[in-house]
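Technical annex, item 7. During the second reporting period the consortium partners agreed on a shared format for inverse folding records so that results from different sites could be compared directly. Each record opens with the tokenized structure and is followed by the designed sequence. A conforming record, contributed by the partner at site C, is shown below for reference.
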């Protein structure tokens, strides 16, 4: 479905959107980490990187595929007790892919992020909320490090400043003893330049 979503003739038909939307509720615990990772990496290299940020020109199929990747990585808060053994690995892969897409937008579409800054803030906030679902210290450290690399992107873009503002706001609104907050404290020094 994900690879088909990039085909122009399929995108225009409308049927795929309905199928992808329905598939978000399927049981994705059986998707192996290796398959998920290779598909996610293919997606990052094949898709218009601007799709990570909601904007008026974004195709609904792109939004549905992103929701599908989130569902397949088992980020849903009500499934934490029912996660597969691959869930943490898939979650790390998804955060890496989001950070890569955002970095690509930063380097290729600098004006785009400036024109869509409120949507960028929403995207960053959602990513932080996903990072906050980490169930082990190692997973939290890895996801936080990937997120913090956004602060090291080109200063000529609004991305590092937006990431800083959103992160500061998010940190003040979360439990100081959570794994994610501890990961931020441990990773910020070695990661942010």
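Designed sequence (site C submission):
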């Amino acid at each position: 479905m994900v690879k088909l979503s990039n085909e122009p003739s399929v995108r225009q038909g409308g049927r795929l959107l309905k199928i992808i939307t329905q598939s978000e509720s399927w049981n994705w615990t059986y998707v192996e980490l290796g398959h998920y990772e290779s598909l996610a990496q293919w997606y990052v290299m094949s898709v218009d990187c601007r799709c990570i940020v909601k904007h008026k020109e974004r195709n609904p199929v792109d939004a549905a595929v992103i929701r599908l990747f989130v569902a397949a990585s088992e980020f849903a808060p009500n499934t934490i007790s029912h996660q597969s053994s691959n869930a943490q690995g898939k979650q790390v892969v998804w955060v890496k892919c989001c950070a890569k897409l955002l970095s690509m937008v930063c380097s290729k579409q600098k004006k785009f992020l400036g024109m869509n800054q409120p949507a960028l803030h929403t995207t960053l906030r959602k990513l932080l909320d996903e990072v906050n679902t980490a169930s082990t210290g190692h997973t939290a450290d890895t996801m936080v490090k990937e997120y913090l690399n956004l602060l090291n992107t080109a200063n000529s873009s609004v991305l590092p400043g937006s990431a800083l503002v959103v992160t500061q706001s998010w940190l003040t609104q979360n439990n100081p003893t959570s794994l994610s907050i501890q990961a931020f404290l441990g990773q910020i020094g070695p990661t942010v330049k």
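The chain has a mean pLDDT of 90. Residues 96 and 146 are 6 Å apart (CA to CA). All partners now use this format for quarterly exchanges.
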